[in-house]
Amino acid sequence: MSPLDSARTAYARPDAPLRTPRSLEYDLLARMTQRMTATATRRDTDFPAFAGALHDNLRLWSTLAADVAGSGNGLPPKLRAQLFYLYQFTAAHSAKVLETSADIEVLVDINTAVMRGLRGDGRRG
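^ thats the sequence. predicted structure below, dont judge the formating
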């Protein structure tokens, strides 16, 4: 199904459940995490796909950072600061991963931890 067909299907269904911003963020992080993990296994044979996955993950984090830095963000200040720090760390670590001086697992762990928080599951596991 093409993206246009998917959009038509979604808009044609008035009974479709509305997505919350939290569920959208969760889904985006899940997709980025899965993509980074999948492309990491092919890093040596398909580096452009791997670099693209890292780039898209960083774009997502950049968007999240801009949101938490905005004055209209309703999250508690401490959580906003922590999320902004995670963006900064993700940016620096992504560069190291591309240089092959660091591993991708830390980025996967960060995304997974944030996904747990979005899901309301503070447990480690």
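The chain has a mean pLDDT of 88.
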